Amino acid sequence: MSFGLFTAVAVIPGLITAGIVSTYYTQNPISGRFSFHPFDSLLERQITRKVLKTWGSKLILRHTQTSHPQVESIWASLTSSLNLPLPGKLIILNTSEHIFYLFPTGDMFISTGFISNHSINTVKTLLAHELAHILLKHPQENIPYSKITCIFTAWMCRNNHHFTQELKNYLITAKYTKIQEEEANAWIRKYFPEISQEIVCSKAMSLS
Description:
- The protein is an alpha+beta fold.
- 61% of the residues lie in helices and 9% in strands.
- Strand 5 and strand 6 (108-111) form a beta hairpin.
- Keywords: Hydrolase, Metal-binding, Metalloprotease, Protease, Zinc.
């Protein structure tokens, strides 16, 4: 095999792979950095709905649902002011457990125990903070798979429930980096400057 042919055989697959992977990079609207997002918005919502059918349903069955007018008003205000196309529901669970989860579908799970342990102003800040993480697609960045594996898994998720379940932890137990926390706080300063930044830094970052 000639050197030129060997080089082509070795390099071309790498270039093709790099080209495919590069299409999944998106520039962050807050910081300008490029980040890897293997799922488009539609697929991410499809994955989320499948996870909610199992994990979310079990959580709801364990607890009774209730209402909280103040929190409901805050959530409606946050989502409407941004004109977000999030069709999900605010689900308030009557339990002392510490429950606070926001999903890409807009489904928000929060417990009365969580609400009672925080001021309403803090709850508003935390809701806005988690909303920032979701809209900036931070959970996708932290999936502990190689980029090619993520792309393959994303493709398989469209038809295979097993692959969806493999990814459920990236939605439920997302851990954010310092850079991501700073981006979420910057997002709040841009869209909700009236929210106290002191609470953002001391409370919201400790939640993630």
